[in-house]
Amino acid sequence: MTWSRNATAYLGAVLVSSFGSNAMMLAAGIWVMALTGDSSLAAWVGFLVWAPTLAGPVIGAIVDRVPRRRRVMIGTDVVMGLLLLLLLLVETEAQVWLIFAVMLCYGIAFVVSDAAENAVLPAAVPADQLGDLNGLRMSASEGVKLAAPLLGAGLFTWLGGAGVAVLDAVTFFVAAALCLLIRPGTIEHTPAAEPWRQRIAEGGRQLWRHPVLRRVVLSTSSLMFLVGMAGTTVFAVVDEGLNRAPAFAGVLMTVQGAGSVAAGLLAGPLQRRMRPHVFAGLGIALFAAGAALRCLPSLAPVLGAALLAGLAVPWVLITGATVLQRDIPAAFLGRVSGTVTLLSFAPGAIGQATGASLLAVADYRLLLGGAAVAGLVTAALCLRPVPEDTPAPGRLSPTR
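The line above is the sequence of MFS transporter; the predicted structure tokens follow.
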């Protein structure tokens, strides 16, 4: 397959910005911990990054108003690079609020960029390359997680948080430069006269009108809840199941990361051979198998479970992104993307809270067994026959 310049530039931007982002998100928590000595404050860093997903439909509706959404991608990268340089002012505990403020902006930038990218890509990349591109995007994002956090921690030890902030700022500026190379076709946008309430609600209505996308997104919501719940058992699996030190959880995360890289590389070819809801259902079934394997007190099954988890979640997320970009009219992509982001990732936080609460009163194997059963039920519901959506009206041919 011959890649267009647009696809190559986009993948380069994803690779560069993902590397800096993963290094910074770990370093930000370490930085807060080093300045305050409070682990609970450090944990707020992760919450602030993910909190803006709750406003996904609103942010997406704002993005839909912009006629040139490539400029949104470029502008977001430039603004984030400049905001990160403000962290050079952080020297004492009194300036910790600045780290929190920048990380909240980080989360907003993620939602804005996602909404803009989902509108730009269908107009910039041939339709038959979208599945492959989304898969490679996932591989790039997951692949850098194998090295970027280590670099971020090492750079923090050497130069402090300011050094990591400068590195991340540079990666945002480079990503913006790469996005300048993308030349999409004309993209529809929302008329300015459309009322706000109607604009936001239309994202949900567009999603509901597409049976394949609706099926995949609802299945993703269920899966991410189960992933969040099962994720709380990782240290119990390592300690009670394998009788190993807590640090061994890092080995499991590395194996899972390797599985995610492989998932992205395989996603494109597999999507061409299966209907979307079948591919998503397969991913959910793999998660259920992995949850069951984690119940076994043996190293090989647990490592296999980590690999399956790495394959499962990316396949479901990639499916949703590809169907979204393929079937939703460009004028609605921002708000539908925001709605999909909310429905996909908010359940994960609820699952984590549920799992943490249940783990205090129940054996971890009961949680994993329940997740396995619920995963199989979700997979079966996802695999049920569904009429294939017709392409959204008004979709413009992509620039090659």
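Note on the example: The radius of gyration is 21 Å. The chain is about 75% helix and 0% strand.
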